[in-house]
Amino acid sequence: MSFRHSSDDGLSPYGWDAQLDHSFADHRSKGLVPARVVGVDRGACDVITESGPLRARLALPATSDPLAFPCTGDWAALRPGAPPELVEVLPRSSAIVRSSASRSSHGQALAANVDMAVLAVSLGGPLNPGRVERLLALVWESGAQPVIVLTKADQSADPVGDADAVAELAPGVDIITTSATSGEGMDVLTAVLTGTVVLLGPSGAGKSTLGNALLGAETLETGAVREQDGKGRHTTVRRSLLPLPGGGVLIDTPGLRGIGLVDADEGLQQVFADIEELAQECRFGDCSHDSEPGCAVQDAIFSGDLSERRLDSYRKLQRENAWATSRSDARLRAQHDERKKWITRSLRETYAFRDRQSRS
Fold first, then answer.
1. Is 52 labelled as part of a ligand binding site?
2. b/e string for 84-97 if b means 16 or more Cβ within 10 A?
3. Which end of the chain is more exposed for a tag (fewer CB within 10 A), N or C?
4. Is residue 325 one of the residues assigned to a domain?
């Protein structure tokens, strides 16, 4: 998706198009207006509407599922008033979802209706391959297109070698090397991005600096990185949504400490496509890639075409995802069973009432 805008285009700078407008016809007939969510906190949210920014109260049906709540990037139906009320979240074209910080069976949406995700990887410190693979699985599963942006290239002794190392972790993903100091790579990145773009990465990776370069202004707060460990503090404390000068929308997010996976089978298959392809050549269909004869994965490790670390990471993320998904499935089964019990109780009470009525 791509969109251009001028200062008087209403919601079009934020991604509203003819298709969305057509699908909103029924809501308009009920007196509701479209809005895009900028940020959510304390039972209310900041939104952009056709007439400008508003602070709206959440008036959604009661639910215990965090994924049903609005997040930055959502399109929503708003009931005008004092205060205005957000009454419905529209269907999402994509959503970047991680397992909740509480490690419950619920997922947590970080951003919605995202077309492209920029994964900021700093060259100012040691590369963390596992984190890159986790972020990629998260994005591929969402339906968005990932782009890896290597930041702080001026702090790397070998930026070309670093880019090659990252490329081994990210088959099929564009990798762009940038430097805020020199402006290197920014023209390439700007040309690649389109639609709604979200910035993802840990604190200290240079997301806000990168965002400011894309926005063409010092809009996002930046902070220093600790020298002893290369980590930054959370200068971005909430998600924000801002139109880009050349068209499109940028979502900035706080640094991610935890990147838990849930229901990310397809994302993992995409990230570890090299291992998935090798596994098709194994002698046995249920090969565990350990000590079985004719294992193409182990042969690749022996020949140096695949690292043991990458296989270990693949297995670790598969186990984590399976555990989180099983908890989610168990919760859904429990909810279904509870509803069946409630229906049964209601029917019994109804029949008992009718029986008493017939006797009186």
1. no
2. bbbbbbbebbbbbb
3. C
4. no
* 65 marked among binding-site residues: no
> What pLDDT does 161 receive?
94
pLDDT at res. 117: 96
Of the two residues 60 and 342, the one the predictor is more confident about is: 60
Q: Is 71 annotated as a binding residue?
A: no
- Is 258 labelled as part of a ligand binding site? no
Residue 106's alpha-carbon distances to 28, 71, 212, 315, in angstroms, are 32, 15, 33, 22
On whether both 36 and 171 belong to a single domain, the answer is no
State the CATH number of the domain containing residue 297: 1.10.40.50
Q: How confident is the model at residue 291 (pLDDT cuts 50, 70, 90)?
A: confident
43 shares a domain with 24 = yes
Residue 287, token pair as written in the block? 């090969």
State yes or no: 152 annotated in a binding site: yes
Percent of the chain with pLDDT over 70: 80
CA distance 337 to 345: 12
Instruction: Tell me: is residue 289 an annotated ligand-binding position.
Output: yes
Total count of domains within the chain: 3
Q: Answer yes or no: are the C-beta atoms of 281 and 296 closer than 8 Å.
A: yes
Quick check: pTM over 0.70? yes
Looking at the fold, whether 73 and 48 belong to one and the same domain comes out as yes
Question: Are residue 104 and residue 242 in the same domain, yes or no?
Answer: yes
Q: Is 208 annotated as a binding-site member?
A: yes
Is 180 annotated to bind a ligand? Reply is no
Cα angle value 152/146/195 (rounded, 5°)? 100
Q: Are residues 210 and 108 in the same domain?
A: yes
94 is in an annotated binding site: no
Query: Is 290 labelled as part of a ligand binding site?
Result: no
Question: Is 316 among the annotated ligand-binding positions?
Answer: no
